[in-house]
Design goal:
About 45% of the residues lie in helices and about 0% in strands. The protein is elongated, with a radius of gyration of 25 Å.
Length: about 55
């Protein structure tokens, strides 16, 4: 959506125009927390990289 603000608009009208816009937020609460992983971080990383080598080569 486009809002046209001219130089002649007062501060009050500018604020009114900007408030009329819908602001879609980002629901960050869906992504909070920890990733559940089994094992040591280094072994998981090696296993993932090993999988990449299988696919690429």
């Amino acid at each position: 959506m486009t809002v046209v603000i001219s130089k002649k608009d007062s501060r009050k009208t500018i604020v009114k125009k900007l408030k009329s816009l819908r602001h879609k937020g980002f629901a960050a609460h869906k992504f909070l927390g920890k990733v559940k992983a089994e094992g040591d971080g280094l072994t998981i990383q090696k296993r993932l990289r090993h999988g990449w080598k299988k696919r690429s080569g």
